From TrEMBL:
Span list, region Disordered: 291-324
MF terms (GO), sorted A to Z: ATP binding; protein serine/threonine kinase activity
Protein name: Serine/threonine protein kinase
Species this protein is from: Streptomyces coelicoflavus
Pfam families the record matches: Pkinase (PF00069)
Sites where the protein binds ATP: K50
Transferase keyword on record: yes
């Protein structure tokens, strides 16, 4: 199977054909929140449509928080985010649409090609930190920053799924066995039910970038409880990271949220380090190497008559798959 076929999966029998007038061209994946589909705006621009799972859609607490988070997410306009362009938190089921980012997730890129070179890690951290600035300025804490939620476009990283995890985390969804958030990338205060702040996202950025540099989670794999115990009770082992990155990672991964670097400080630090490599190839070629060949996005689906617009949208049921 080629990469394009892996990204754009055919619609299955239980998938809707339209969502609020958006005709669906392919399935992109499924996760804790629901299923994600490729569609297009009326002008032909590709978008990712996320349709919320039935368990969450039936929870009124989720719907209220989801509505509030959508309002906040509409304010985020950062260059390194996937902009929210449409949503209906009151629909059955709720859904949202963001601009489609043509590029692999960081997790997929590392799985295919191994750890990123130092310049690419610096570009990654600077872009994600700039995205966090825009997200935090809108009053949002991401809460679930991880390699699967960072997409590698040809001009830099894009942070996705910001402002959504809080709504899902407020429900009784854990009874279904689905957890919003990933143990390997949580901050100590997240793991111990402490106060969640913008500094929480900085810790997750440190872990996400460490994954990019190492090719594996900094705190290892294993049962979630074991990983969370390590995060709360042990110092991160930075010895395997490139030496020139260790000081910045130490700042991002400080146990005390008040001692962590701010996103603005991370951007400044990375730009300064990239300036030292001005004579090296640290620009777009870095991203072409790690993102791989471009994929061909399927074209918009042509209208097939009134019956298409009337197709109901079923809420996705539980699924074991998890993607961005």
């Amino acid at each position: 199977m080629n990469h394009t076929a892996e990204v754009f999966q055919p619609l299955q029998d239980d998938d809707p054909r339209t969502v609020a007038g958006y005709r669906l061209a392919a399935r992109l994946g499924a996760g804790g929140m629901g299923r994600v589909y490729l569609s297009h705006t009326r002008g032909g621009r590709p978008v990712a449509i996320k349709v919320v799972r039935s368990e969450l859609a039936d929870d009124q607490t989720f719907r209220r928080r989801f509505s509030r988070e959508i309002k906040a997410a509409r304010k985020v306009k950062g260059a390194y985010t996937a902009e929210l362009i449409d949503a209906d938190p009151d629909a059955t089921p709720p859904w949202l649409a963001t601009l489609y980012v043509p590029g692999p997730s960081l997790s997929d890129a590392v799985a295919r090609n191994g750890p990123l070179p130092v310049p690419a890690v610096l570009w990654l951290m600077a872009g994600v930190a700039e995205a966090l600035q825009a997200i935090h300025d809108a009053g949002i804490v991401h809460r679930d920053l991880k390699p699967a939620n960072v997409l590698l476009a040809d001009d830099g990283p894009r942070v996705i799924d910001f402002g959504i995890s809080l709504a899902a985390d407020s429900t009784a969804h854990t009874a279904t066995g689905t957890t919003i958030g990933t143990a390997q990338y949580m901050a100590p205060e997240q793991a111990s039910a402490g106060a969640i702040t913008a500094a929480t996202d900085v810790f997750s950025l440190g872990q996400t970038a460490a994954f990019a540099a190492l090719g594996r989670p900094l705190y290892g794999d294993g049962p979630a409880a074991t990983v969370l115990y390590r995060i709360v009770h042990s110092e991160p082992d930075l010895s395997g990271l490139p030496e020139r990155l260790r000081d910045l990672f130490a700042r991002c991964l400080a146990a005390d949220p008040g001692e962590r670097a701010t996103p603005a400080e991370i951007v400044e630090w990375c730009r300064r380090e990239l300036g030292r490599d001005a004579g090296e190839d640290t620009g777009p070629a870095v991203w072409r190497e790690i993102a791989g060949p471009p994929v061909t996005v399927p074209p918009p689906v042509a209208a097939t008559g009134a019956a298409t617009a009337a197709t109901p949208v079923p809420a996705p049921g539980p699924t074991a798959a998890h993607t961005a």
